[in-house]
Every structure is written in structure tokens, then in C-alpha cells.
Amino acid sequence: MPELPEVEALALDLKGRLTDRAIVKVHVAAFSALKTFDPPLQALEGAMVEDVTRHGKFLDIDASGTHLVLHLARAGWVRWRDEVPELPPKPSNKSPLALRVVLDDQSGLDITEAGTKKSLAAYVVRDPGDVRGIASLGPDPLVDEFTVEAFRKILTEAGRAQVKGVLRHQGTIAGIGNAYSDEVLHAARMSPFKPASSLTEEESQTLYDAIRTVLGDAVDRSRGLHASELKGEKKSHLAVHGQTGKPCPVCGDTVREVSFADSSLQYCPTCQTGGKPLADRRMSRLLK
């Protein structure tokens, strides 16, 4: 799933490609992806792109005051095409193409989603705040207003909720998903199941520093890369996420996994849980 660093880099890449370009047409290949009807999709046609920005994990293309907002969900991506086909795409459940944006020189964007579970969402709105997911976002963890004091308040209000879930909840902190929450907790040497309100001042400072460092470094590494390079860059720098069975790059212990119904987390026992493996909830249920 694209998270804050990748969406930030996508926004920067697309800003350079799209600014001051006219949108000629937007084709919808997967009708379930378009979540709005007013303003109509046609409001984008003929509009000049003025900016491309990010709100959490949402991508925002501002075209003369009308916004095409994209949430790429788990398997979505944006692909630049130097030349798009002349014929519009045919709707198909088998094709990964969800939307195609055609520009004034016949170049454009393909917004795609792999797999069969279709969660990608596109919104055409007058204000990004009209998108419910954006309106409910928590603070961006890389802005100046996200201070350690603000973070400690978040942890206190979260109560006994597990810190992994607090980091991932978009209404609490915007932009951190499953991968970077694993990476942040590994950098902070903290169990993903630790209750949020139990953190000491020192622990909350350590976790705050890990958030800023892990995300900030990922943004710096991604800045200037083309969209086609971002997935590879992310994977090549993950310490524990997606690394089950491999040695921890810090201590050499084997990276472990806890599986859930539709996701999993990865961690290092030596670095994060005092050497104790965490119970795999899904496997525990199978053994009962």
C-alpha cells in the first residue's frame, strides 16, 4: 500500500509533469472507483492543472479549482504514459485500469489497481475537505505542528489501544500504514502490542523521534524519483516489514510475523520484545 513517503514522492513527480497542462479527458474504466457525481467528471475537461499535493495517503490534483482526489488503497498505483491510446479503455473486471487521465499532448496517467479486491477510490470535488477521509484525517506527522507534546496527547487519549494500531489509524495520525508502522516500531525498539498510554516520557520521545526519522528519511530518499521507481526504493529499505524469516539488519535475529484476518505485522524479537516471540493470533485460533 502506498503510504506517506510514496504518495509525497508521487505528488512531487506528478506536479512537475502536470502543472500548467490541460486535462483533455478522464476515462473511467472501473465505475466502482468513482465515488462522486457532483461536480461531474466532465468538470475536469479543459481545466489547467495548477498543483498536485498530498493529504495523508490521498493524492490531490487541483485542476482550475476542481480537484481529482485519489486514494490508492492497498494495490493502487499511478503510471505515467508518454502516449495514451487513441481509443478510450473498455470497462473490464479483468483489467487493472481504473481511470485514465489524458493531457493536451496525448500523454497522460493510468490509475491502476492490481488484484481482485477493488478498493481504489477517485473523487471529483470542489474542495479536498469534501472527501470524508480527508476531513477526518489526524495531523500529518512531518509538519511542525506535530510536536512531541501533541504526540503524547494522542497516546494518552488512545488509552490501552495497542501502539501499532494508534500509528496506523488515519484519524489519529495521517499517512502511516502497515509497513511504516512496523518500521517505526522497530526503529524505536518497541513492541507493536504495547498499550499507548503506558509509554513513559522517554519512550514517547523515542517513538516520536522514530516517526520523524523513518518517514523523513524515506521522503528524502524518494524525492526526485519517478513513479516507476518508488515501489522498488521502498522495498529495498525495509528492515522488518515484509522480511519474515530474514535476519534483522540490526541484531541478526530472525524477523517474525503475526498474522491477522487480512493483514500481518513483522517485528524483531530481540530488538522489540525482549527476545520473546509474540503469539500469532491466527495460528492460535487454528490450534484451539
Give short descriptive properties of this protein.
10 strands, 4-stranded antiparallel beta sheet, 9 helices, 20% strand, elongated, 288 residues, Helicase, Ruva Protein, domain 3, 2 domains, N-terminal domain of MutM-like DNA repair proteins, alpha+beta, disordered C terminus
Structural overview:
By secondary structure, the chain is an alpha+beta fold. It has two domains: 132 residues, N-terminal domain of MutM-like DNA repair proteins (Alpha-Beta Barrel), CATH 3.20.190; 140 residues, Helicase, Ruva Protein, domain 3, CATH 1.10.8.50. Helices cover 31% and strands 20% of the residues. The protein is built from nine helices and ten strands. The strands form three sheets. The chain has a four-stranded antiparallel β-sheet with strand order 1-6-7-5, with no helix packed on it. It has a four-stranded antiparallel β-sheet with strand order 2-3-4-8, with helices on one face. A two-stranded antiparallel sheet has the order 9-10. Strand 2 and strand 3 form a beta hairpin. Helix 1 packs parallel to helix 6 and helix 3 crosses helix 6. The relative contact order is 0.14. It holds the Pfam family Fapy_DNA_glyco. This is Fpg/Nei family DNA glycosylase. One of its GO terms (molecular function) is damaged DNA binding.
